[in-house]
Predict the structure of Muconolactone isomerase domain-containing protein.
Amino acid sequence: MKYLVYVKDRTSGPQPQDPIALNRAVRDWVGARLQDGTFDCAYYVLPKMGLCILNADSHESLLTLLRAWPSFPYQEFEIHMLADVRHGIDNNFERLQKAQSQSESAA
């Protein structure tokens, strides 16, 4: 399963003791996830947010992955499940055809 994940710094709560070291740890960790295929992509979103598309077999796998993120205690994650766009378009087409057929048979 694919997920779109937005990553933002928490507005309150604990702050990292060494933000510079944490920055490098996050960079290395994200790089490793890109390298091993766990992340399809990762981007910095201006002015101060990140996003990635990641792969996880289950919600539980996703939870475990996010908790392994080096900056997990200092960040918020907004998660959206993704579906293949062609499947969505074809599914909508089938739904529209069915509705049209039902409308025509009722007339």
